[in-house]
Write a structure and sequence with these properties.
Shape: elongated
Number of helices: 12
Radius of gyration: 24 Å
Structural class: alpha/beta
CATH superfamily of the largest domain: Periplasmic binding protein-like II
Number of strands: 12
CATH topology of the largest domain: D-Maltodextrin-Binding Protein, domain 2
Distance between the termini: 58 Å
CATH class of the largest domain: Alpha Beta
Strand order of the largest sheet: 4-3-5-12-6
Order of helices and strands: HHHEEHEHHEHEEEHEHEHEHEEH
């Protein structure tokens, strides 16, 4: 019987998923030399080469691919059995979450607090980004769970809808009182790979408006600050500006777009980590503030 420990299998599966020893070391909270040593131990025990180097990445050999394919469900089943037996109370590990600002301002804080309360051994690493980049990070395995502006359609991604938000055309109260789009105004939006940008452009065309300029900012809160300070107009998520509209800092300058932004919790379709699957199950029950 070959003497392969459980941590050897875990190491092998994370290298296969993330593509580099360095990424696997970060994921497993160890060093790159330690990962290399584990791989040598596996190869010495089995008498085969599991990886070959291609540029900066480590690529599985044919025998390595077969080993990963056969071990992955075994490892997932082992982890699932242990976690299910304890009701996930003893779950430990790091789960990397990607979120857009709208989800972060709405359902994410409650989700994080619930995980910290229910699963104190689990560490969450949250990164805010735009949907297009989070999608790529999710496919690459550098984040485990994402809250994306949808709809997202990809064979590599499994999603669950978590609601939608309405949008408003808003400008500062002074801008609206001065006539709003009666004169050319600068318009601000998230960059063009965002659904919000598509709504902005389509709505301008629908109303026959040629803005003085169309600036972009990759941070929704900064965009809101720019517009609140008299910097033009923008399509904004209603929940994020509800208070500013109520206080009169902002005012609606055009009819609200008919389209609403939908949101989805997402993981890789091949995800087998029981902890990530449990967090996805919980995330699927969330509801974005409409």
């Amino acid at each position: 019987m070959k003497r392969i420990a459980l941590y050897h299998l875990e190491t092998l599966l994370w290298i296969a998923r993330l593509g580099t020893f360095r990424a696997a070391a970060e994921r497993l909270n160890t060093t790159q030399p330690a990962i290399s040593a584990r791989v040598r131990e596996i190869e010495d025990q089995l008498g085969i080469a599991i990886f070959r180097r291609e540029g900066r990445n480590m690529v599985l050999t044919a025998r390595g691919r077969r080993l990963v394919k056969e071990c992955e469900p075994l490892w997932a089943g082992f982890e699932r059995a242990l976690l299910t037996a304890s009701g996930f109370e003893g779950a430990t590990g790091v789960v990397r979450i990607g979120s857009g600002e709208i989800a972060a301002a709405s359902c994410l804080p409650g989700f994080v607090h619930a995980i910290e309360h229910d699963l104190p051994g689990v560490t969450l690493e949250v990164e805010l980004d735009l949907t297009a980049r989070m999608f790529q990070h999710l496919l690459a395995g550098t984040i485990d769970l994402a809250f994306l502006a949808g709809p997202v359609a990809s064979p590599g991604i499994r999603t669950a809808p978590i609601g939608e938000v309405g949008l408003v055309w808003a400008a500062s109260r002074q801008t609206v009182e001065a006539g709003g789009f009666g004169a050319p105004l600068p318009v601000w939006s998230i960059p063009d790979h965002s659904p919000l940008h598509g709504v902005t452009v389509a709505s301008l065309a629908e109303h026959g408006i040629a803005p003085r300029s169309l600036g972009t900012c990759n941070n929704v809160r900064t965009l809101i600050d720019i517009v609140s300070g008299g910097g033009g107009a923008a399509v904004m998520p209603e929940p994020m500006v509800r208070g500013l509209l109520a206080s009169g800092v902002l005012a609606e300058v055009l009819p609200r777009p008919a389209r609403r932004l939908s949101f989805e919790a997402a993981i890789r379709s091949t995800e087998s980590d029981p902890l990530v699957l449990e967090l996805f199950r919980r995330a699927a029950r969330l509801r974005i503030d409409a």
